[in-house]
Amino acid sequence: MPFATILGQEHAVGVLRRSLAGERVAHAYLFEGIDGCGKMLTALSLVEALFCGSAEPCGGCPACRKLASLQHPDLHLLEPEKGVIKIDQIRELQKELSLRPVEAPKKACIVSQAHKMNQSAANAFLKTLEEPPGSALLILLSDTPTALLPTILSRCQRLRFNPLPLEIVAQLLMNRGVPAEQAQSAASLAGGSMAKGGAIAQEGFLLRRREIVEQVIGLSPREFGLLTATAERLGHEREQAQEVVEILTLFFRDVMLCRHGAPPPGNSDLAGIVERTARTLQTGEILGRLESVLKAGQSLLRNVNPRLTLEALFMALSMER
After folding, report:
1. Mutual angle of helices 194-201 and 166-175, in 10-degree steps
2. Going edge to edge, which strands form the sheet with 157-160?
3. pLDDT tops 90 at residue 271
4. Domains of the chain (ranges plus CATH)?
5. Tens of pLDDT along 187-239?
6. What are phi and psi of 214, to 5 degrees?
7. Which of 15, 24, 239, 289 has the greatest number of beta carbons closer than 10 A?
């Protein structure tokens, strides 16, 4: 996987290319940025370049082929187990890194979601950073670097990965066979993440999103039974309720933009509904709805019951007519 295949991360890739060319590759990196912006792909490309012995991996040698299938004996991938990286995983990694490389010039470890190390695991990993075994390369990936120990942050070379431009996400989705219009709509909602864009582009999401918007903006306080039934259905699980809040946040944000003459960047497939709502509501009314939606999001973060949270939100939105 050559560096040239990594799109939208010119700065990070440029730093790594210069380090490879000058033989100044650090022993530990922290790649930070949202999920789905290319951190893992870049980490694998860096390891491939080192194992291949070329600043631009060839993709055809035995080392490159093994890395492409994640089967290289000197590559170690560390991921959370049930949402947590535990000390036993770190100890096993330390044992592996203490051994001599099997084929490559050095061993390499990629830690996915490094911020999910618990306290004991983080303290154990810190010792590995302070006294790296041999010439091992350690690459941490995180979308929440502030959750890592400051001492871990200080011992890594940090590289920031930006959200991917909308046009790149759309093009990559189309490369996967997603129809152009659907890819554009998904990309506009993805926030620069291919992972999120791919999930949104799955058949059914955009239709479900349209149904949620139409149902919620059509609720009336006089139809209390329908209001509570809708909250019950959409708030059955916390993740589902969070999705509803995110959808409504983007919707009313775009209504505000449309009210002031801008196109709806995140709801291009709902442009008609956005424009109609923008004509109906005044600026203060749109802001009031946005505030209600954001308060609901905060309630979900505080572990308030998702059904009750949506019920209160829908009541507030219907009363603001």
Report:
1. 50
2. 75-78, 108-111, 137-142, 28-32, 157-160
3. no
4. 3-160 (3.40.50.300), 204-319 (1.20.272)
5. 888 889 999 899 888 767 888 888 889 888 888 777 778 888 888 888 888 88
6. -65, -40
7. 289
